[in-house]
Amino acid sequence: MLALLFEGRAHQGLRANVDNALRLxxxxxxxxxxxxxxxxxxxxxxxxxxxxxxxxxSLRFDADEVIQSLPHSGTMSLADQRxxxx
Length: 86
What we know:
By secondary structure, the protein is mainly α. The protein is built from 5 helices and 3 strands.
């Protein structure tokens, strides 16, 4: 019984990691979602203005974290609303 409980917890932790990994997007998708040029996003990564994860030579982003990190102007609020529905 204890082994089953432990196994269930291990699977829950694995599931959380998989769910988080599935939410990560590349710079092309982030650029498309926010309607911001890739060059601007690369600059913001260089300045550490937006959160990112480096996977080898690739950059990955959690769109929700990026949106929360940006100054909330009318444009960003619209982008957030537009993609929350998808």
